[in-house]
Predict the 3D structure of the following.
Amino acid sequence: MSFLIDPPWLYANGRVIGSAAPQRAQTPLAAATAITFLGVSISLYLNRPWTRPIWRLCPAGSGRDWMLNSGLLRIDARRAGFRTHAIAAAIFATYPLWLWLGLRAERRKRAA
């Protein structure tokens, strides 16, 4: 999970939940998905020890490095300060929105 990958992945998960799950199961599935994404992604950003196997599979030096750079960018994750942390928090706050947008798109498709 990373800031570059998570939003489209959350949107896609919303589309899948909206198309494959019965209406009554969509809200609990979406909530569980959002909680999982946030829990793992925030833990990666905070370099929690249990996330080491995850970020070691990726081209990253730490969980925060993976979240910020996704193996593509060159942000120095070790020198992240208040501004970087504030931007990260704002991005995390958008995670439920991406999931909801996917759900909404699929519901509109079904209604059409």
